[in-house]
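Chain X:
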Amino acid sequence: MTVLSVALILLALAAVWLALAWRGLVAARDAVDATWTAIDVHLKDRQALVPALVAAVQAETVIEAETLARLTSARDDAAVASTPWERADAERRLVSGIGAVSAIADRHPGLGCAAAFVDLQARLAGLDDDVNSARRVYNADVRLYRARRARFPGTLLRRLGDFTDRPYFELDHTRDRGVPTLALVRSAA
Protein backbone atom coordinates (compact mmCIF):
# COMPACT_ATOMS: atom_id res chain seq x y z
CA MET A 1 0.00 0.00 0.00
CA THR A 2 1.17 3.42 -0.75
CA VAL A 3 1.24 6.31 1.64
CA LEU A 4 -1.54 7.96 -0.32
CA SER A 5 -3.89 4.97 0.00
CA VAL A 6 -3.18 4.71 3.77
CA ALA A 7 -3.89 8.41 4.14
CA LEU A 8 -7.14 8.06 2.18
CA ILE A 9 -8.23 5.10 4.32
CA LEU A 10 -7.47 7.05 7.53
CA LEU A 11 -9.31 10.06 6.18
CA ALA A 12 -12.32 7.91 5.29
CA LEU A 13 -12.32 6.34 8.78
CA ALA A 14 -12.13 9.79 10.38
CA ALA A 15 -15.06 10.96 8.23
CA VAL A 16 -17.14 7.93 9.24
CA TRP A 17 -16.24 8.49 12.90
CA LEU A 18 -17.27 12.16 12.69
CA ALA A 19 -20.49 11.27 10.89
CA LEU A 20 -21.38 8.75 13.61
CA ALA A 21 -20.53 11.27 16.32
CA TRP A 22 -22.71 13.88 14.58
CA ARG A 23 -25.57 11.39 14.33
CA GLY A 24 -25.27 10.55 18.03
CA LEU A 25 -25.30 14.21 19.00
CA VAL A 26 -28.35 14.88 16.83
CA ALA A 27 -30.14 11.84 18.30
CA ALA A 28 -29.38 12.98 21.86
CA ARG A 29 -30.60 16.52 21.13
CA ASP A 30 -33.77 15.23 19.50
CA ALA A 31 -34.44 12.91 22.46
CA VAL A 32 -34.18 15.88 24.85
CA ASP A 33 -36.58 17.89 22.70
CA ALA A 34 -39.05 14.99 22.49
CA THR A 35 -39.07 14.37 26.23
CA TRP A 36 -39.46 18.10 26.84
CA THR A 37 -42.61 17.93 24.73
CA ALA A 38 -43.95 15.17 27.00
CA ILE A 39 -43.33 17.35 30.06
CA ASP A 40 -44.93 20.32 28.32
CA VAL A 41 -48.15 18.35 27.75
CA HIS A 42 -48.43 17.49 31.46
CA LEU A 43 -47.65 21.06 32.51
CA LYS A 44 -50.30 22.45 30.17
CA ASP A 45 -52.82 19.95 31.58
CA ARG A 46 -52.01 21.20 35.09
CA GLN A 47 -52.32 24.81 33.96
CA ALA A 48 -55.71 24.03 32.45
CA LEU A 49 -56.98 22.89 35.88
CA VAL A 50 -56.04 26.15 37.62
CA PRO A 51 -59.17 28.11 36.56
CA ALA A 52 -61.37 25.29 37.87
CA LEU A 53 -59.39 25.22 41.11
CA VAL A 54 -59.75 28.99 41.49
CA ALA A 55 -63.50 28.73 40.82
CA ALA A 56 -63.89 25.93 43.38
CA VAL A 57 -62.09 27.95 46.04
CA GLN A 58 -64.03 31.11 45.21
CA ALA A 59 -67.29 29.20 45.53
CA GLU A 60 -66.43 28.25 49.11
CA THR A 61 -64.46 31.29 50.31
CA VAL A 62 -64.39 34.96 49.51
CA ILE A 63 -61.41 36.06 51.61
CA GLU A 64 -58.58 34.32 49.75
CA ALA A 65 -58.43 36.64 46.73
CA GLU A 66 -54.70 37.43 47.10
CA THR A 67 -53.69 33.75 47.13
CA LEU A 68 -55.89 33.04 44.11
CA ALA A 69 -54.49 36.06 42.27
CA ARG A 70 -50.91 34.80 42.84
CA LEU A 71 -51.93 31.33 41.60
CA THR A 72 -53.54 32.80 38.47
CA SER A 73 -50.50 35.00 37.84
CA ALA A 74 -48.16 31.99 38.19
CA ARG A 75 -50.32 30.04 35.73
CA ASP A 76 -50.21 32.90 33.22
CA ASP A 77 -46.42 33.19 33.59
CA ALA A 78 -46.01 29.45 33.05
CA ALA A 79 -48.18 29.57 29.95
CA VAL A 80 -46.02 32.21 28.26
CA ALA A 81 -42.57 31.02 29.40
CA SER A 82 -40.47 30.38 26.31
CA THR A 83 -37.42 28.54 27.62
CA PRO A 84 -37.12 25.56 29.95
CA TRP A 85 -35.30 27.83 32.43
CA GLU A 86 -38.19 30.33 32.50
CA ARG A 87 -40.70 27.50 32.54
CA ALA A 88 -39.09 25.82 35.57
CA ASP A 89 -39.20 29.08 37.53
CA ALA A 90 -42.83 29.71 36.61
CA GLU A 91 -43.81 26.13 37.40
CA ARG A 92 -42.12 26.41 40.83
CA ARG A 93 -44.36 29.38 41.57
CA LEU A 94 -47.38 27.51 40.22
CA VAL A 95 -46.71 24.48 42.43
CA SER A 96 -46.26 26.82 45.38
CA GLY A 97 -49.59 28.46 44.58
CA ILE A 98 -51.33 25.11 44.38
CA GLY A 99 -49.83 24.26 47.77
CA ALA A 100 -51.18 27.55 49.15
CA VAL A 101 -54.64 26.55 47.94
CA SER A 102 -54.31 23.29 49.89
CA ALA A 103 -53.54 25.38 52.96
CA ILE A 104 -56.77 27.30 52.30
CA ALA A 105 -58.63 24.00 52.47
CA ASP A 106 -57.19 23.46 55.94
CA ARG A 107 -58.61 26.80 57.08
CA HIS A 108 -62.01 26.33 55.42
CA PRO A 109 -63.57 22.93 56.24
CA GLY A 110 -66.32 23.38 53.66
CA LEU A 111 -63.77 23.62 50.86
CA GLY A 112 -61.93 20.46 51.94
CA CYS A 113 -65.20 18.54 51.75
CA ALA A 114 -66.42 19.95 48.43
CA ALA A 115 -66.52 17.20 45.82
CA ALA A 116 -65.26 19.45 43.02
CA PHE A 117 -62.26 20.56 45.08
CA VAL A 118 -61.38 17.02 46.19
CA ASP A 119 -61.62 15.85 42.56
CA LEU A 120 -59.33 18.68 41.42
CA GLN A 121 -56.82 17.81 44.15
CA ALA A 122 -56.77 14.20 42.99
CA ARG A 123 -56.31 15.20 39.36
CA LEU A 124 -53.53 17.63 40.27
CA ALA A 125 -51.78 14.97 42.35
CA GLY A 126 -51.94 12.58 39.37
CA LEU A 127 -50.52 15.26 37.08
CA ASP A 128 -47.73 15.94 39.58
CA ASP A 129 -46.82 12.25 39.41
CA ASP A 130 -46.86 12.38 35.61
CA VAL A 131 -44.68 15.52 35.58
CA ASN A 132 -42.25 13.92 38.01
CA SER A 133 -41.94 10.78 35.87
CA ALA A 134 -41.50 12.74 32.64
CA ARG A 135 -39.00 15.04 34.37
CA ARG A 136 -36.81 12.07 35.36
CA VAL A 137 -36.73 10.84 31.75
CA TYR A 138 -36.03 14.33 30.43
CA ASN A 139 -33.21 14.92 32.92
CA ALA A 140 -31.64 11.57 31.96
CA ASP A 141 -31.78 12.60 28.30
CA VAL A 142 -30.24 15.98 29.15
CA ARG A 143 -27.44 14.22 31.04
CA LEU A 144 -26.64 12.08 27.97
CA TYR A 145 -26.86 15.06 25.62
CA ARG A 146 -24.58 17.17 27.78
CA ALA A 147 -22.07 14.32 28.00
CA ARG A 148 -22.02 13.97 24.22
CA ARG A 149 -21.57 17.74 23.83
CA ALA A 150 -18.70 17.78 26.32
CA ARG A 151 -16.70 14.86 24.90
CA PHE A 152 -14.55 14.94 21.82
CA PRO A 153 -15.62 15.21 18.96
CA GLY A 154 -18.84 16.71 20.34
CA THR A 155 -16.89 19.74 21.51
CA LEU A 156 -16.02 20.43 17.87
CA LEU A 157 -19.30 19.38 16.29
CA ARG A 158 -21.55 21.41 18.60
CA ARG A 159 -20.13 24.57 17.05
CA LEU A 160 -21.23 23.43 13.59
CA GLY A 161 -24.91 22.87 14.35
CA ASP A 162 -27.74 23.84 16.66
CA PHE A 163 -26.45 22.05 19.74
CA THR A 164 -27.19 24.63 22.42
CA ASP A 165 -27.18 23.63 26.05
CA ARG A 166 -30.37 22.19 27.52
CA PRO A 167 -31.13 22.72 31.21
CA TYR A 168 -32.15 20.13 33.73
CA PHE A 169 -35.79 20.62 34.64
CA GLU A 170 -36.02 21.12 38.36
CA LEU A 171 -39.23 22.29 39.97
CA ASP A 172 -37.47 22.90 43.24
CA HIS A 173 -34.17 24.55 44.01
CA THR A 174 -32.94 21.46 45.82
CA ARG A 175 -32.37 18.25 43.94
CA ASP A 176 -33.24 15.94 46.83
CA ARG A 177 -36.88 16.99 47.05
CA GLY A 178 -39.57 15.97 44.58
CA VAL A 179 -42.67 17.76 43.41
CA PRO A 180 -44.91 18.55 46.38
CA THR A 181 -47.96 16.36 46.56
CA LEU A 182 -51.40 17.45 47.63
CA ALA A 183 -53.52 15.70 50.20
CA LEU A 184 -56.27 13.84 48.38
CA VAL A 185 -58.87 13.79 51.12
CA ARG A 186 -59.36 16.14 54.01
CA SER A 187 -60.08 14.33 57.23
CA ALA A 188 -63.34 15.31 58.87
CA ALA A 189 -62.79 16.61 62.39
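Chain Y:
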Amino acid sequence: MFEIIDYSTLKMIWWLIIGILIIGFAIMDGHDMGVGMLLPFIGKNDDERRVVINSIAPHWEGNQIWFVVLGGSVFAALPIAYGTAFSGYYWAMLAVLWALFFRPVGFKYRSMIQAHRWRNTWDWLLLVGSFVPTLVFGVAFGNLLQGSPFYLNDELRSFYTGSFWGLLNPFALLCGVLAVAMFVFHGAVYLMIRSAGDVYQRTRKTLPYSAMITILAFAAGGIWIAYGIDGYVITSPIDPSGSSDPLYKTVALERGAWLNNYKTYPLTMLIPALGFVGILLALVLARIGKTGLAFISSSCGLAGIIATAGVSMFPFLMPSSTDPRSSLTVWDSMSSHHTLLITLVGVIIFLPIIVAYTSWAFYVLRGKITEEDIRANTHSRY
Protein backbone atom coordinates (compact mmCIF):
# COMPACT_ATOMS: atom_id res chain seq x y z
CA MET A 1 0.00 0.00 0.00
CA PHE A 2 2.88 2.39 0.76
CA GLU A 3 3.92 2.24 -2.90
CA ILE A 4 0.63 3.79 -4.01
CA ILE A 5 1.62 7.30 -2.84
CA ASP A 6 5.01 8.16 -1.42
CA TYR A 7 5.25 9.74 2.04
CA SER A 8 6.30 13.25 0.94
CA THR A 9 3.45 13.44 -1.58
CA LEU A 10 1.00 12.33 1.08
CA LYS A 11 2.20 15.10 3.36
CA MET A 12 1.56 17.67 0.62
CA ILE A 13 -1.88 16.18 -0.09
CA TRP A 14 -2.81 16.44 3.57
CA TRP A 15 -1.56 20.02 3.75
CA LEU A 16 -3.92 20.80 0.87
CA ILE A 17 -6.79 18.87 2.50
CA ILE A 18 -6.44 20.80 5.76
CA GLY A 19 -6.43 24.03 3.77
CA ILE A 20 -9.55 22.99 1.84
CA LEU A 21 -11.35 22.12 5.08
CA ILE A 22 -10.44 25.48 6.64
CA ILE A 23 -11.74 27.27 3.55
CA GLY A 24 -14.86 25.07 3.50
CA PHE A 25 -15.52 25.94 7.14
CA ALA A 26 -15.04 29.65 6.44
CA ILE A 27 -17.42 29.62 3.48
CA MET A 28 -20.15 27.43 4.95
CA ASP A 29 -20.12 28.21 8.67
CA GLY A 30 -18.71 31.68 8.03
CA HIS A 31 -21.87 32.98 6.41
CA ASP A 32 -23.92 31.59 9.33
CA MET A 33 -21.71 33.48 11.77
CA GLY A 34 -21.86 36.59 9.62
CA VAL A 35 -25.65 36.52 9.64
CA GLY A 36 -25.58 35.94 13.41
CA MET A 37 -23.45 39.05 13.89
CA LEU A 38 -25.85 41.09 11.75
CA LEU A 39 -29.01 39.83 13.50
CA PRO A 40 -29.66 42.56 16.13
CA PHE A 41 -28.82 45.36 13.69
CA ILE A 42 -30.65 44.26 10.54
CA GLY A 43 -33.90 43.19 12.21
CA LYS A 44 -35.82 46.12 13.67
CA ASN A 45 -38.76 44.07 14.94
CA ASP A 46 -39.42 40.46 15.90
CA ASP A 47 -40.70 39.39 12.47
CA GLU A 48 -37.66 40.83 10.73
CA ARG A 49 -35.29 39.15 13.17
CA ARG A 50 -37.07 35.86 12.59
CA VAL A 51 -36.53 36.35 8.87
CA VAL A 52 -32.80 36.75 9.54
CA ILE A 53 -32.69 33.69 11.81
CA ASN A 54 -34.68 31.49 9.44
CA SER A 55 -32.42 32.38 6.51
CA ILE A 56 -29.75 30.15 8.10
CA ALA A 57 -31.90 27.96 10.37
CA PRO A 58 -32.21 24.97 7.98
CA HIS A 59 -28.48 24.77 7.36
CA TRP A 60 -26.43 25.96 10.33
CA GLU A 61 -26.22 22.55 12.02
CA GLY A 62 -25.20 20.86 8.77
CA ASN A 63 -22.57 23.53 8.12
CA GLN A 64 -20.97 22.74 11.49
CA ILE A 65 -19.82 19.43 9.99
CA TRP A 66 -16.95 21.32 8.34
CA PHE A 67 -15.71 22.37 11.77
CA VAL A 68 -16.03 18.82 13.10
CA VAL A 69 -14.28 17.27 10.10
CA LEU A 70 -11.52 19.88 10.29
CA GLY A 71 -10.86 19.10 13.96
CA GLY A 72 -10.87 15.36 13.31
CA SER A 73 -8.54 15.71 10.33
CA VAL A 74 -6.02 17.80 12.28
CA PHE A 75 -6.16 15.22 15.09
CA ALA A 76 -5.49 12.37 12.64
CA ALA A 77 -2.95 13.99 10.31
CA LEU A 78 -1.20 16.48 12.61
CA PRO A 79 -1.20 14.99 16.12
CA ILE A 80 1.77 17.05 17.36
CA ALA A 81 0.23 20.30 16.11
CA TYR A 82 -3.18 19.29 17.50
CA GLY A 83 -1.78 18.60 20.95
CA THR A 84 0.39 21.72 20.99
CA ALA A 85 -2.36 24.06 19.81
CA PHE A 86 -5.14 22.71 22.02
CA SER A 87 -2.99 22.67 25.14
CA GLY A 88 -1.27 26.01 24.52
CA TYR A 89 -4.38 27.83 23.37
CA TYR A 90 -6.57 26.11 25.97
CA TRP A 91 -8.33 29.21 27.29
CA ALA A 92 -8.88 30.63 23.82
CA MET A 93 -10.39 27.31 22.68
CA LEU A 94 -12.55 27.23 25.80
CA ALA A 95 -13.81 30.74 25.03
CA VAL A 96 -14.81 29.51 21.56
CA LEU A 97 -16.60 26.50 23.06
CA TRP A 98 -18.48 28.60 25.62
CA ALA A 99 -19.55 31.06 22.93
CA LEU A 100 -20.67 28.28 20.59
CA PHE A 101 -23.04 27.00 23.29
CA PHE A 102 -25.24 30.05 22.65
CA ARG A 103 -25.92 29.07 19.04
CA PRO A 104 -27.87 25.80 19.37
CA VAL A 105 -29.60 26.96 22.55
CA GLY A 106 -30.43 30.33 21.02
CA PHE A 107 -31.89 28.85 17.84
CA LYS A 108 -34.00 26.31 19.75
CA TYR A 109 -35.31 28.46 22.60
CA ARG A 110 -35.38 32.00 21.25
CA SER A 111 -38.95 31.93 19.88
CA MET A 112 -40.49 29.63 22.50
CA ILE A 113 -41.58 32.55 24.70
CA GLN A 114 -43.35 35.60 23.26
CA ALA A 115 -41.59 38.17 25.41
CA HIS A 116 -39.54 41.01 23.97
CA ARG A 117 -36.81 40.90 26.64
CA TRP A 118 -36.45 37.11 26.32
CA ARG A 119 -36.11 37.19 22.53
CA ASN A 120 -33.89 40.27 22.48
CA THR A 121 -31.53 38.63 24.99
CA TRP A 122 -31.19 35.54 22.83
CA ASP A 123 -30.60 37.70 19.74
CA TRP A 124 -27.59 39.29 21.41
CA LEU A 125 -26.36 35.93 22.68
CA LEU A 126 -26.54 34.60 19.11
CA LEU A 127 -24.38 37.56 18.13
CA VAL A 128 -21.89 36.64 20.87
CA GLY A 129 -21.92 33.00 19.72
CA SER A 130 -20.97 34.16 16.23
CA PHE A 131 -18.61 37.04 17.04
CA VAL A 132 -16.36 35.41 19.65
CA PRO A 133 -15.41 32.29 17.60
CA THR A 134 -14.79 34.42 14.51
CA LEU A 135 -12.58 36.85 16.42
CA VAL A 136 -10.63 34.04 18.12
CA PHE A 137 -10.04 32.20 14.83
CA GLY A 138 -8.66 35.39 13.29
CA VAL A 139 -6.49 36.09 16.32
CA ALA A 140 -5.18 32.50 16.14
CA PHE A 141 -4.04 33.00 12.53
CA GLY A 142 -2.35 36.24 13.56
CA ASN A 143 -0.42 34.47 16.29
CA LEU A 144 0.60 31.63 13.97
CA LEU A 145 2.13 34.15 11.57
CA GLN A 146 4.12 35.70 14.42
CA GLY A 147 5.13 32.39 15.99
CA SER A 148 3.55 30.66 18.97
CA PRO A 149 5.27 30.66 22.39
CA PHE A 150 6.01 26.96 22.90
CA TYR A 151 8.89 24.51 22.79
CA LEU A 152 9.32 20.75 22.53
CA ASN A 153 11.51 18.73 24.86
CA ASP A 154 13.53 15.70 23.77
CA GLU A 155 10.44 13.49 24.19
CA LEU A 156 8.46 15.84 21.87
CA ARG A 157 6.25 16.99 24.71
CA SER A 158 5.11 20.57 24.13
CA PHE A 159 5.35 23.28 26.77
CA TYR A 160 3.49 26.56 26.34
CA THR A 161 5.38 29.62 27.56
CA GLY A 162 2.87 32.38 26.78
CA SER A 163 -0.36 33.67 28.32
CA PHE A 164 -3.91 34.18 27.16
CA TRP A 165 -3.52 37.97 27.15
CA GLY A 166 -0.31 37.68 25.14
CA LEU A 167 -2.40 36.33 22.28
CA LEU A 168 -4.24 39.66 22.07
CA ASN A 169 -1.36 41.57 20.47
CA PRO A 170 -1.91 44.32 17.85
CA PHE A 171 -1.21 42.23 14.74
CA ALA A 172 -3.34 39.32 15.97
CA LEU A 173 -6.20 41.71 16.74
CA LEU A 174 -5.90 43.11 13.21
CA CYS A 175 -6.31 39.56 11.91
CA GLY A 176 -9.31 39.19 14.22
CA VAL A 177 -10.87 42.33 12.73
CA LEU A 178 -10.22 40.95 9.25
CA ALA A 179 -11.96 37.66 10.13
CA VAL A 180 -14.99 39.45 11.61
CA ALA A 181 -15.30 41.85 8.67
CA MET A 182 -15.03 39.18 5.98
CA PHE A 183 -17.55 36.90 7.73
CA VAL A 184 -19.98 39.82 8.15
CA PHE A 185 -19.58 40.65 4.45
CA HIS A 186 -20.01 37.01 3.43
CA GLY A 187 -23.04 36.64 5.69
CA ALA A 188 -24.59 39.83 4.32
CA VAL A 189 -24.27 38.56 0.76
CA TYR A 190 -25.98 35.31 1.75
CA LEU A 191 -28.72 37.15 3.66
CA MET A 192 -29.49 39.16 0.53
CA ILE A 193 -30.09 35.88 -1.31
CA ARG A 194 -32.65 34.74 1.29
CA SER A 195 -34.38 38.01 2.25
CA ALA A 196 -36.61 40.68 0.73
CA GLY A 197 -38.04 44.09 1.60
CA ASP A 198 -36.56 46.12 4.43
CA VAL A 199 -34.26 43.33 5.61
CA TYR A 200 -32.80 43.09 2.11
CA GLN A 201 -32.30 46.85 1.82
CA ARG A 202 -30.64 47.22 5.23
CA THR A 203 -28.35 44.31 4.52
CA ARG A 204 -27.41 45.82 1.18
CA LYS A 205 -26.35 49.03 2.92
CA THR A 206 -23.89 47.17 5.16
CA LEU A 207 -21.92 45.69 2.25
CA PRO A 208 -19.64 48.66 1.41
CA TYR A 209 -18.56 49.06 5.04
CA SER A 210 -17.73 45.40 5.68
CA ALA A 211 -16.05 45.10 2.25
CA MET A 212 -13.93 48.21 2.90
CA ILE A 213 -12.80 46.97 6.32
CA THR A 214 -11.99 43.53 4.88
CA ILE A 215 -9.86 44.95 2.05
CA LEU A 216 -8.08 47.51 4.22
CA ALA A 217 -7.35 44.99 6.99
CA PHE A 218 -6.07 42.43 4.44
CA ALA A 219 -3.82 45.02 2.81
CA ALA A 220 -2.58 46.33 6.17
CA GLY A 221 -1.80 42.78 7.27
CA GLY A 222 0.23 42.18 4.12
CA ILE A 223 2.27 45.35 4.62
CA TRP A 224 2.81 44.49 8.29
CA ILE A 225 4.03 41.00 7.39
CA ALA A 226 6.41 42.39 4.76
CA TYR A 227 8.00 45.09 6.90
CA GLY A 228 7.15 44.50 10.54
CA ILE A 229 7.15 40.76 11.25
CA ASP A 230 10.00 38.28 11.06
CA GLY A 231 9.20 35.12 9.13
CA TYR A 232 10.77 31.69 9.63
CA VAL A 233 13.17 29.83 7.33
CA ILE A 234 14.63 26.34 7.60
CA THR A 235 18.42 26.63 7.58
CA SER A 236 19.36 22.95 7.58
CA PRO A 237 18.69 20.07 5.18
CA ILE A 238 15.29 18.45 5.73
CA ASP A 239 14.00 15.19 4.29
CA PRO A 240 10.37 15.55 3.07
CA SER A 241 10.00 11.77 3.46
CA GLY A 242 11.68 11.67 6.86
CA SER A 243 10.18 10.78 10.22
CA SER A 244 8.09 13.23 12.21
CA ASP A 245 10.67 14.74 14.53
CA PRO A 246 10.72 18.56 14.43
CA LEU A 247 13.94 18.74 16.48
CA TYR A 248 16.08 17.39 13.63
CA LYS A 249 16.22 20.77 11.88
CA THR A 250 17.43 24.31 12.54
CA VAL A 251 15.30 27.40 11.94
CA ALA A 252 16.13 31.10 11.76
CA LEU A 253 14.02 34.27 11.81
CA GLU A 254 14.32 36.60 8.86
CA ARG A 255 12.55 39.87 8.03
CA GLY A 256 10.20 39.39 5.08
CA ALA A 257 10.64 35.60 5.03
CA TRP A 258 6.88 35.08 4.72
CA LEU A 259 7.18 36.57 1.21
CA ASN A 260 9.82 34.11 0.00
CA ASN A 261 7.34 31.69 -1.58
CA TYR A 262 5.87 34.50 -3.68
CA LYS A 263 9.34 35.44 -4.92
CA THR A 264 10.22 31.84 -5.71
CA TYR A 265 6.88 31.01 -7.34
CA PRO A 266 5.48 34.27 -8.85
CA LEU A 267 2.19 32.60 -9.85
CA THR A 268 1.29 32.34 -6.16
CA MET A 269 0.70 36.11 -6.26
CA LEU A 270 -2.63 35.22 -7.85
CA ILE A 271 -3.80 33.91 -4.46
CA PRO A 272 -3.78 37.24 -2.54
CA ALA A 273 -5.05 38.90 -5.72
CA LEU A 274 -8.02 36.51 -5.58
CA GLY A 275 -8.73 37.76 -2.06
CA PHE A 276 -8.96 41.40 -3.18
CA VAL A 277 -10.74 40.77 -6.48
CA GLY A 278 -13.21 38.28 -4.98
CA ILE A 279 -14.41 40.71 -2.31
CA LEU A 280 -14.59 43.71 -4.68
CA LEU A 281 -16.40 41.76 -7.38
CA ALA A 282 -18.85 40.34 -4.83
CA LEU A 283 -19.63 43.89 -3.68
CA VAL A 284 -20.35 45.02 -7.24
CA LEU A 285 -22.45 41.96 -8.07
CA ALA A 286 -24.48 42.20 -4.87
CA ARG A 287 -25.15 45.90 -5.40
CA ILE A 288 -26.62 45.21 -8.86
CA GLY A 289 -28.75 42.32 -7.57
CA LYS A 290 -26.67 39.35 -8.78
CA THR A 291 -26.60 37.87 -5.28
CA GLY A 292 -25.97 34.25 -6.29
CA LEU A 293 -22.88 35.19 -8.29
CA ALA A 294 -21.88 37.56 -5.48
CA PHE A 295 -21.90 34.67 -3.00
CA ILE A 296 -19.63 32.63 -5.28
CA SER A 297 -17.31 35.61 -5.67
CA SER A 298 -17.32 36.27 -1.92
CA SER A 299 -16.45 32.61 -1.33
CA CYS A 300 -13.50 32.98 -3.71
CA GLY A 301 -12.42 36.09 -1.82
CA LEU A 302 -12.45 34.21 1.49
CA ALA A 303 -10.53 31.35 -0.10
CA GLY A 304 -7.90 33.77 -1.40
CA ILE A 305 -7.44 35.48 1.97
CA ILE A 306 -7.12 32.22 3.91
CA ALA A 307 -4.90 30.56 1.30
CA THR A 308 -2.59 33.59 1.40
CA ALA A 309 -1.74 32.77 5.02
CA GLY A 310 -1.10 29.12 4.16
CA VAL A 311 1.11 29.84 1.14
CA SER A 312 3.03 32.53 3.05
CA MET A 313 3.89 30.15 5.89
CA PHE A 314 4.58 27.00 3.86
CA PRO A 315 6.12 24.63 4.86
CA PHE A 316 5.55 25.89 8.42
CA LEU A 317 2.34 24.97 10.21
CA MET A 318 3.00 26.25 13.71
CA PRO A 319 6.28 28.16 14.09
CA SER A 320 7.69 28.56 17.59
CA SER A 321 8.75 31.97 18.88
CA THR A 322 10.26 30.43 22.04
CA ASP A 323 12.46 27.87 20.29
CA PRO A 324 12.45 28.18 16.47
CA ARG A 325 13.90 24.65 16.17
CA SER A 326 10.66 23.33 17.70
CA SER A 327 8.60 24.84 14.89
CA LEU A 328 6.19 22.38 13.30
CA THR A 329 6.29 21.98 9.52
CA VAL A 330 4.57 19.92 6.86
CA TRP A 331 7.65 17.71 6.61
CA ASP A 332 8.23 16.84 10.26
CA SER A 333 4.93 16.90 12.18
CA MET A 334 2.60 14.67 10.16
CA SER A 335 1.29 11.27 11.19
CA SER A 336 2.84 8.06 9.87
CA HIS A 337 2.68 7.05 6.22
CA HIS A 338 0.15 4.32 7.07
CA THR A 339 -2.14 6.69 9.02
CA LEU A 340 -2.13 9.35 6.31
CA LEU A 341 -2.92 6.80 3.61
CA ILE A 342 -5.81 5.18 5.51
CA THR A 343 -7.37 8.52 6.52
CA LEU A 344 -6.99 9.77 2.93
CA VAL A 345 -9.28 6.93 1.83
CA GLY A 346 -11.85 8.16 4.35
CA VAL A 347 -11.62 11.70 3.04
CA ILE A 348 -12.00 10.54 -0.57
CA ILE A 349 -15.17 8.65 0.37
CA PHE A 350 -16.89 11.04 2.79
CA LEU A 351 -15.93 14.56 1.63
CA PRO A 352 -17.83 14.24 -1.68
CA ILE A 353 -20.84 12.93 0.28
CA ILE A 354 -20.74 16.01 2.54
CA VAL A 355 -20.49 18.33 -0.46
CA ALA A 356 -23.30 16.53 -2.32
CA TYR A 357 -25.64 16.47 0.69
CA THR A 358 -24.96 20.13 1.50
CA SER A 359 -25.61 21.15 -2.11
CA TRP A 360 -28.84 19.16 -2.19
CA ALA A 361 -30.04 20.71 1.09
CA PHE A 362 -29.39 24.25 -0.15
CA TYR A 363 -31.15 23.48 -3.43
CA VAL A 364 -34.25 22.03 -1.80
CA LEU A 365 -34.51 24.79 0.82
CA ARG A 366 -33.80 27.67 -1.56
CA GLY A 367 -35.94 30.76 -1.90
CA LYS A 368 -36.77 33.96 -0.04
CA ILE A 369 -37.84 34.15 3.59
CA THR A 370 -40.40 36.93 4.06
CA GLU A 371 -42.26 38.45 6.99
CA GLU A 372 -45.50 37.15 5.52
CA ASP A 373 -44.06 33.65 5.48
CA ILE A 374 -43.04 34.00 9.14
CA ARG A 375 -46.53 35.15 10.18
CA ALA A 376 -48.22 32.38 8.21
CA ASN A 377 -45.99 29.67 9.70
CA THR A 378 -45.26 31.12 13.12
CA HIS A 379 -45.27 27.76 14.91
CA SER A 380 -43.08 25.91 12.39
CA ARG A 381 -40.37 28.55 12.08
CA TYR A 382 -37.61 29.48 14.49
